[in-house]
Structures are given as structure tokens and as C-alpha cells.
Amino acid sequence: MSSYADRLAALRVQLKEDRLDGFVVPLTDEHMSEYVGSYAQRLAWLTGFQGSAGSAVVLPEEAAIFTDGRYTIQVRQQVSPTEWSYQSVPETSAAKWLQENAPSGARIGYDPWLHTSDWVKQATKSLAAKGAELVPVTRNPIDAVWADRPEPSKARLVVQPDDMAGKNSAEKRHEMADWLHKEGADAAVLAALDSIAWTFNVRGADVSHTPVALAFALVNADGTADLFVEGEKIGDDVRAHLGNGVRLHERAEFEPYLKGLSGKLIAVDPERSVAAIYQALDEGGARILSRRDPAILPKAIKNTVEVAGHKAAQARDGAAVSRFLRWIETEAPKGGLDEMIASDKLLSLRQDLGGLRDLSFDTISAFGPNGALPHYKGTAETNLPFTTGTLYLVDSGGQYQDGTTDITRTVPVGEPTAEMIDRNTRVLQGHIAIATAHFPKGTRGSQLDSFARRPLWEAGCDYAHGTGHGVGAFLAVHEGPQRISPVGSSQSGGDEPLQPGMILSNEPGYYKPGEYGIRIENLVLVVEKDVPGADKEVLGFETLTFVPIEKKLIDKSMLSDRELDWLNDYHAQVLALIGPQLSGDDREWLEKACEPL
């Protein structure tokens, strides 16, 4: 279909044929993934929205798209206001909007493989208040009208060696089995793709930038497991790696298998398992125990091997990003650069390292006003040339077998304004506040979030995203359950107690719509801190990312002695770690960039 308006019209025709008065379109897949394969990009196909979080509702005469504060500007640039109304989350939601806009007696369709059971209950209740009904579909109506919809990836799984994982799969499964015994359960469903990759020490290539494979699994109370994945994706090496303790099934056999678990007590994660899983277990007569996926917390708490691998990956990646920043500083004033040229150059520098498996997400190479879009994704239509007098923001990362990286730096092209310097300095102060925080064991990320915002709040400013997200070990760049974010925000997870071994981002920012954006991001590791005389166990952060922070955007007079010491100490560490990897002009540039302020 030639336009998004045509696609919306075709969907409405299909809904009428299916005897539905509306349909809910989430941006996820059968695993409740944040980033999804091309076959599951239904929201983007229907609306044109390219963000990584959102949903939509289609009624016969109305349609609405729901996004959070990260995408306020982007959704208006990519989605037509003629066909769609813009709705802000968490102020509203698809369920709340339906309660207000669905006509009495309406049949609103949903795909049970794309929504959680809790969402279904909430939406059912909301619609009942209007005399409307939520109806599960057996075939997604978007798939019926999406003629050239891609097929799911058929890439083969690969082994993540035990010497990279730090613990073999059998050990992980037996620890889950011990947990199942304590809970009195027979098995646990694993639906999250990164949980499956971590549990079985395998990786895949079914989702761009996230090394996971499309699969489901059950871990049983005897330590064995059943893995549901397309047979053509399993080679002899992976089969041997999995061993006799893992029974292999076709992915299509997962739902029938669940229906055969009559009388069994099955642990299911209500946040990460879709409603269809609950429905299949119910139909089969299984009993359901709602518990968090038993891989989630162990995966988040990195072992010593994973931490060491991450540090090694960060050191190499830091050299590539440092070389890139020197290149930008040298080439941008000459003219001829644009966002896509810069992004391609950064990719080539990472590739020069050797060992790059993929980027960890689409590089945010954002110049001037595009930098004000926190999750900007460049296209040929939005690509801006570099000019002078504004800022360039680059948020990027790499997937290496020993670690996943994520870093943001902001640099001026030409002379920055006093306002730019002020805002950047405040962002830096917030970044340092997180980096230097000490807090008692049991502290949640939500309790730390305001540390990063205070310098901006004092100037009447803020940013509409969390301060930090968890990061995987050659897995998802956005990993739960830990976050540094306000309670009640659209980005959940800020209520998880931080524990040693967790890796998070530290990324406060500032965005001036239509002009520029600023973000400073490093990754940090939660560690134990020795605080003399402390009454409680104290935790803090160890910074893992080492790349110079732009000094031309810092007002030294605004920094306290403690903040200045942190910055100078940080740059000394950058020079010590990255310096030996660089030579010639790159080394000379790094030495200057790391001189004390």
C-alpha cells in the first residue's frame, strides 16, 4: 500500500470483515520484547512511527497513538495528525482511552500473543464500564492486510562459551530447579528472549542489535528443560552444547505442550509472558503460579567473568569512540559532514577493532534540533548536514562477545552559546552526582533518580526519560529489572533494589525542542563501598566507560571542588586506559582532551 492512510483504511476494512469495532496495536512481539524483529513491526508498518515504545488503537472513525515523553516530538514528525491523535503516557493509556472513546456494545479486538494477562484484565474492566467487550483474535488483522510482511528470522543459534558466560547452563538450570522446589512448582516458563539466551548460554541473530533467538522454554524442577525453537536453527554444535538435559521441540509445539500440563503447577512471569500462555495453561488444566522469571535477577547480577569481559569490551570500545571524537573535531569545521556520514564513520572505527558482532542499538547521530529527540533515529529524510554554532549528540554502542556497550557524548560544532554551556554543565553535575553516590543496601534506583535532576531543576529544567537502565552481558542493551527512574514513570523498574554486580547507564540530559540536545552517558557497576564508621552496608558505583567528556561545554566556575576532582580524576583514568591503544594524532588529541580543567 502506497501510504499509511491506505494501510489504516485497509485495516478498518479487515476489522469490519472480522466483526470487530476496533483493534489494539502494541509495539512488541510474542515475548514482550522492547526491540522486535521486522516481522513484528506492526505499529511502524501501520503508522510510520519508528520509536521503540508505543501502542495504538484503531476505531471505525478514530485512531490514537500512545507514546511517552521520549517521543513527544518524534511521533509528531512521523505520524500524520490527519489520521491519528497523539496521546501521552502515563497520563493516559490505550485502556483508559478506550473507556472514554469506545462506543457502547463495541467489540474491541486484541492479539493474545502481544499483551500480558494483566493488561487484558485491565482493558476488559475498562471496556465493561462502557458496555463494550474485549475480544481475542486468532489471526492478527494487521497480518491479514500486510501483504509483504517479512518472515521471522531463520538465523542459527550460536554457543556463548562457558568461559565467557562464567557459569554453565546446567548450573543455572539447577539453581532454578532449587527455586522451583522451594516454591512447590513443577516448572517455570521462560518467554523473555534474553532470559532464554542467558539460561542456555546461547545467542542468536533474530532481533536487530540484540543477540537473541526466537524461542520459548520451560525449566523443570529436576533441572532439565524443554526448549521450543525452529529445528532448522539448531546446528550440531548447539545440540551438543545443550546436552541431554535439554529436550528440543519445534517452536510451534509450545502452545500444545502447555495445554498438556494438566495438574502441574507452572510458574509464569505476568510481566514477561503474554496472555496466550496463561490461556493455554488454563485450557489444559494446569495451575498457575505468578512469579518473576527466575532468570531475571541472576542475569542482572553479573558474575566476575561477565564483569571482566564487560570491562575489556569497554576499554576497546572507548578507544574507537575517542578516535571518532577526534575525527569529528577535525572534520566538522571543514564542512561536508552530515549525521549519516558521522554514524557510518563511527561504525567503521568500531569494526576496525575486530570482534564487533553488531551495534547494540541504532546509533543516535543527532545534530542540532535532531538532538532534542532523545531516541532520534536518522533517515535520509531527516539527515542534517553539520553547520556551526550548535551541538552534535551521539549515543551509540557495540555488541561484543565479552560485553555490551552504550555511551553518549555531546560536542559543539563551532562556538557554543552560554546557555549550551550552562545546560551541559548542569547535566554533567547530575552525572557526577550519580557516579559518586553512596547509598545503603536496599536502595532503589527511584531513590537516586533525583540526584541527577537537581542541578537542572534548580534552573527550572528537566528531562523526560529515566536516568539509567540496566545493560546485559552480550545481550540486551536495555535490561531489567534495575533502573534509575522516577516511580510511576512509563519506564518501569525504578523500584528494584540495586545489588552489587548490576550494570546500569548513567545518562541525564537536557533537550531544547527545535534547537539542540545534551546527554552524557557512561555505564556504571554497582559495587560495595568501604565507608568507615558506617552503620549499614554501603553501595556505590564504579564507572566502566572511559572516553573524554567535552571540556568546551563546561563552566568550571559552576563546579564544586568535589565535582572538579571527579572530572579530572576521570580524565586521568581515560588517559591511562585508552592512551596505550592510540598513537599519533589520536594519542595527541586524547592527551589534550584529558588535561586537567
Automatic annotation (TrEMBL):
Q: Enumerate the spans annotated as Peptidase M24 domain.
A: 310-528
Q: What Pfam family is a match, any one?
A: Creatinase_N
- Annotated ranges, domain Peptidase M24 C-terminal: 538-597
Stretches assigned to the Creatinase N-terminal domain: 7-139
What InterPro entries does this protein's entry cite? Answer: Creatin/AminoP/Spt16_N, Creatinase/aminopeptidase-like, Creatinase_N, Pept_M24, Pept_M24B, Peptidase_M24_C, X-Pro_aminopeptidase_P
Mind listing the UniProt keywords for this protein, alphabetically? Aminopeptidase, Hydrolase, Metal-binding, Protease
What is the similarity comment for this entry? Belongs to the peptidase M24B family.
**Protein name, please?**
Aminopeptidase P family protein
Taxonomic placement: Bacteria, Pseudomonadati, Pseudomonadota, Alphaproteobacteria, Sphingomonadales
